[in-house]
Amino acid sequence: MADQHASIKKASPPWSCRCSAYIGAFYVSTKSGLPREVAYEPLEASAAEFAEAGVWKGGMAMIQLLRYTSTPVGPYDEMLLMPGNFEVPAGHGSHSRITRIYVSQRDTTYNGRKNWNIPKHIARFQYTGDFSAPPFTVQLYPEDPSIETPFFTASLRHLSFWTPTFPLSSNFLNRLGIANAMVQPPLPEGDPKDLLCGTNEWYKNIATLYSPKTKLLWMDLKQEEKEVSKGKENWWPGLKRWHLAVWLQDAQLDMGEPQVLKV
To answer: Are 73 and 108 in contact (CB under 8 A)?
Structure first.
């Protein structure tokens, strides 16, 4: 039987990657509830085994924008949401989780889903300005080229005062209580299934990150007018527009082999 994934470059973990990244953080409370239409892509939102896997605990949420210049499957752009912590069943504690993530190419879509239960989908990334030299704006569109309205917009701006650059690592963030371990539940299968593969087990993943040159910025989450009319003025309902972010330049990001959890 022919391999149904033959057209996709498969790359098992571990991965060693080079990238630049912008990470914006904001606090979310369980009192407001988890907005399902924001936290998940429709495929995962409709799958109870993913969207209802463990109790959402809120806490520190993050939006990350990355440009990978070197990975086992080539360069690509990425946007992801980690909306705080989730209680993992069977006594595995509370951990962060990527619930929604978009990338700009096929190979990383399949491998991210297969290797680590990361629910990657393809999107079109459109920039005004230069990703490597803020200020710039990025807008994400569905893969379908006939859709002309972005579903996500973010702008990165320098602070109004001078700030120094500094090194930043995931080890330092761990000491601040921002763990680099995330636990991902099994993924539903999508269409096409040779790209949007499903999985069957829970994975605990460890990502290590280091940048010798990090700088504070503003992340502006004001959305397009059509999204504002849907109650998503700043993407996440009720969220303020401006958020502190860090810009990690010339960063090293490593993803190891997942640990299978018995749940």
So the answer is: yes
Cβ contact 130:136 at 8 Å: yes
Helices (H), the chain: 36-39, 42-45, 48-51, 106-116, 170-175, 225-228
Please state the pTM of the whole predicted model.
0.94
Would you report the helix, strand and coil content of the chain in percent, each value rounded to 5? 15, 45, 40
- Which of these, 8, 54, 61, 10, lies nearest to 32 by C-alpha position? 61
Cα–Cα distance measured from residue 229 to residue 236, given in angstroms and rounded to the nearest whole number: 13
Which structure tokens are listed for 234?
């700043």
pLDDT digits (tens, 9 = 90+) for 167-178: 999 888 777 767
Neighbours of 165 (CB within 10 A): 13
- Please give the pLDDT value at position 174: 77
How far apart are alpha carbons 59 and 94 in whole angstroms? 11
pLDDT above 60: residue 22: yes
Q: What's the rounded Cα separation, in Å, for the pair 225 and 152? A: 11
